[in-house]
Write a structure and sequence with these properties.
Layout (H helix, E strand, L loop, with lengths): L1 H24 L8 H128 L1 H9 L4
């Protein structure tokens, strides 16, 4: 129990020894009057208002810039839409051009087939005409030869009696 009393007294003495030090550590501050405090608060409020106004102005400027950027993007989108429309028009033109070329190829193929048919028909006509001509020429030649051979036979018979005719026929190699 004595120990408890000694510990208790030691704590009390320690507390009393530290308290006076705190009392001496107090510094005297500048004394401000109420008027000075009000003036400083007013200046702080004005500064805050100015900062808010500046911040609001900058935010409005940023909003305006974003609107300008949005407008530029809209203009660019419109340009891209115009370009897409031009490309679609060009694609339509190419499709029409392809159709025209296809029609021309079809027409050319048709003309070539017709021309080929005409050539074949003409060649057939030429061969037929030539065959017919050759047959007629053969017939007329055969008839002429038959006629000539009868005539030569008759002249040979006559040449037996006529010396002058015999000499002429010899000169032509008919006797």
């Amino acid at each position: 129990m004595i120990k408890k009393i000694i510990i208790g007294l030691s704590i009390i003495m320690f507390i009393f020894s530290v308290l006076p030090l705190r009392a001496f550590s107090y510094q005297k501050t500048m004394g401000l009057t109420d008027k000075e405090i009000v003036e400083r608060l007013t200046k702080l409020e004005e500064g805050q208002r100015a900062l808010r106004a500046e911040m609001n102005r900058r935010f409005e400027d940023m909003d305006k810039r974003f609107e300008d950027i949005n407008k530029r993007f809209e203009d660019m989108n419109k340009r891209f839409e115009d370009m897409n429309k031009r490309f679609e028009d060009i694609n339509e033109r190419f499709d029409l051009l392809n159709k025209r070329i296809s029609d021309l190829v079809h027409t050319t193929n048709t003309m070539m087939v017709v021309f080929g048919g005409l050539v074949v028909a003409m060649m057939g006509l030429v061969f037929w005409d030539r065959k017919t001509l050759i047959e007629k020429a053969k017939e007329s030649t055969v008839k002429k030869i038959e006629t000539d051979s009868r005539l030569i036979k008759a002249l040979r018979e006559l040449a037996k009696t006529d010396k002058k005719l015999a000499e002429v026929m010899k000169s032509f190699g008919l006797l």
